[in-house]
Amino acid sequence: MTTAIVGAGLAGLARARALSARGEDVVLFESSERPGGVVRSEKVGGYLLELGPNTVRPTPELWRLVEDLGLESEALLADPRLPRSIDVGGRLHPLPTSAAAFLRTGLLSTRGKLRLLTEPFRRRGIPSGETVRDFFTRRLGPEVADRVVEPFVAGIWAGSSDRLSLEAAFPALARWEAERGSLTRGALADRRGSARSSRSRKRGLLSFREGLETLPRRMARELGGKLRLRCAVESVDRVGRGWRISQGAASVEVERVCIATPARQAARLVEGVAPAAAAALSAIPHAPLAVVHLSAPARAEQGFGHLVVPQAGRRILGAIWSSCLFPGRAPADRALYTVFLGGTRDPEALALADEQIVEVASRDLSTALEIPPTFEPVRVTRYAAAIPQYDLGHVRRIEALSRAEDSLPGLSFAGSYRGGISVGDVLRSALAV
Ligand SMILES: Cc1cc2nc3c(=O)[nH]c(=O)nc-3n(C[C@H](O)[C@H](O)[C@H](O)COP(=O)(O)OP(=O)(O)OC[C@H]3O[C@@H](n4cnc5c(N)ncnc54)[C@H](O)[C@@H]3O)c2cc1C
Predict the structure, then answer these.
(1) pTM higher than 0.90, yes or no?
(2) Which atom of ligand 1 is nearest to the CA of 414?
(3) What residue ranges define each of the domains in the chain, with the CATH number in brackets?
(4) Is 306 in contact with 147 (CB distance < 8 Å)?
C-alpha cells in the first residue's frame, strides 16, 4: 500500500514516519527546498534565531520522538521556573502561577481577586458557540479575561479572545466545565490524573543545541529518498479506488493520500474532488505575524519573556527573551529578544516597512524592560498567514473535513488547523494514524 503525503512540515514528516514504521510505502512531497515548514532555525552573525516556533512543550509524544530519533544529547530544556511577565499599567507584572500568587498579584484589583473565588459557583455556559473571552469573563471575571487571557491568546495564537471558539481552541476547558461544573474542579481532577504519569514527564521548554529545526532535519534524514524536495503538488484526483498526485506533466498513482499542507493550499488541492472540504478549508481565517529578532548588550535579568495587554502606547504582542531561555543563542556579551507584532489584533502592522517594525519593537521592548532603546536589528520575518484561527465556525468546518474523509476512502488531512496549533498538538494528531 503506497501513501503519498503532501507537505513536509512537522505534520507531514510525523505522518510519513508513523506510516513507514508500520511497514507501509510512503512518498512525501515538499514544494520548498527544505523540510520542516515553519520550523526554521537560522544562524546570523553569532545569533541562533528561531524564525517559527520558539516555546515548545515536551509533550510525551514529542519526547518519545526525540528519543526514537536519538536526539536526547542534542536536546535542551529551559528552566520551567523562569518567570513570565505581563505588561500592563506601565510596568511588568510577574504572571501568577498559583492560587496564592493570584491573590497577591498587582495584575488584578481586590474586586477582581474576589471574583476569582466565586468561580466554582458560576453557571454553566452554552455547550457550543461561546468565545474564549465570554467564557473567561463568565467564569473568572472581566479582569482575568482582559489582563491574562487576552495577552495569552495574542501570544500563542496571534489571535483575539473575542473571536476564538472555546470549544475549538480550548476543548479541555470546555470539557472541565461540562464534566465538573467548574474550572477549579476540572483542574484539580486533571492534576490528580497527570500526577500519576508525571514521573517520566519532561518539564520546561524543549529546543536543541542547533535549534528546533534539528527535529525535522533528523526526521527527513531518516526518511531518506522517500522525501522529495522541490516537488510542488498541483492537483489530487480520484482514479478508480486510488489517487493521482500531479506535478506539472508528471504524476504518480497511490492508494492513499494525506494532505499535510497549510489550509489554503489544501483547499486548492482538493477543490475538484472534495468541494465542501475545500470550501471549509479556505474559510479558516489566519493571523498574519511579524517576528523581529533584536539584540542588545547582555543584562542580568532572567525570564521567559513578556506578553502585552492591549493598551495605548504599546503595539507589540509580546517578546521572548531568547538568550535567557537557552544557551548559545547570542554571543556572550549580547542578549537576543524575539518580538512579535501583528496578529488579528493589529494586521496593519504587516504593512509597515522593516525599519518601522524594528522601531516599534525596540520602543515597546525598551519601555517594558526599562532600558534605553539601543537594540540592534538582527532579522525581520513576515508571515502573511501564520496561525489558523479556531473561530466560532471552526468545529463545523472540521466536521466537513471528516465527512470528506469518510466519503472518500484513502483521503486524509493533517496540519495545525486541526487538533491544536502547537507543535505538540500537531505531532500528536499526525502520529495518530
Ligand atoms: C511564527 C510562528 C511561531 C510559532 N510558535 C510556536 C511556539 O512557540 N510553540 C508551538 O508549539 N507552536 C508554535 N507555532 C505553531 C507550530 O509551529 C505550527 O502549528 C506547526 O509547525 C505547523 O506544522 P504543519 O506541518 O501543520 O504546517 P507547516 O509547517 O506550514 O508545513 C506545511 C508544509 O507544506 C508544504 N507545502 C505547501 N503546499 C505544498 C504543495 N502544493 N506541495 C508540496 N508541499 C507543499 C510547505 O512548503 C510546508 O513545508 C508557531 C507557528 C508560527 C508560524
Answers:
(1) yes
(2) 26
(3) 2-39+212-284+391-431 (3.50.50.60), 95-123+130-200 (1.10.3110.10)
(4) no
